[in-house]
């Protein structure tokens, strides 16, 4: 927020009135969003919730098994052998996990 406040002071020196007003509007909006975010983080912390906790990826066992090749051909989609995501026919790799196909 301090950086944005410094940017506001710099934006007030812009000579073009329309450009100055537009930049000030952008900065004021960004400051308001930063305040909302800060207040939300503080509220979650007061309730004992870590607002920036990392979530473990789902294990591959919880995903349905990949379709058989015949099913994939009938549906028009092939699935990645690594993550079971739908493959794009023109890509030589999985768009979800990057595994080569």
How would you describe this structure to a colleague?
The longest helix has 30 residues. The model has no long low-confidence stretch (mean pLDDT 82). This protein is mostly helical. 2% of the residues are buried. The protein contains three helices and no strands. 47% of the residues lie in helices and 0% in strands. It starts with a helix and ends in a 26-residue tail after the last helix. The protein folds into two domains: 45 residues; 43 residues, no CATH class.
Number of helices: 3
**Extended strand count:** 0
What general outline do the C-alpha atoms trace? elongated
Chain-averaged pLDDT: 82
Distance between the termini: 46 Å
Overall helicity: 40-55%
Low-confidence stretches are none
The proportion of strand residues reads: under 5%
Radius of gyration: 24 Å
- Provide the structure class: mainly alpha
The major beta sheet can be summarized as: none
H/E element string? HHH
What's the quick description here?
The protein is an all-alpha fold and 101 residues long. 47% of the residues lie in helices and 0% in strands. The chain folds into two domains: 2-46; 59-101, no CATH class.
Write the topology of this structure:
Elements: H1 2-11, H2 17-46, H3 69-75
Helix pairs in contact: 1-2
Structural features:
101 residues, mainly alpha, 3 helices
């Amino acid at each position: 927020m301090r950086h944005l406040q410094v940017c506001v002071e710099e934006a007030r020196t812009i000579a073009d009135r329309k450009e100055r007003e537009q930049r000030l509007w952008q900065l004021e909006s960004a400051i308001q969003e930063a305040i909302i975010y800060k207040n939300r983080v503080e509220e979650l912390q007061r309730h004992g919730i870590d607002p920036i906790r990392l979530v473990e990826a789902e294990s591959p066992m919880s995903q349905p098994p990949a379709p058989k090749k015949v099913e994939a051909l009938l549906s028009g989609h092939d699935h990645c052998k690594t993550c079971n995501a739908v493959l794009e026919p023109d890509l030589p790799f999985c768009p979800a996990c990057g595994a080569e196909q």
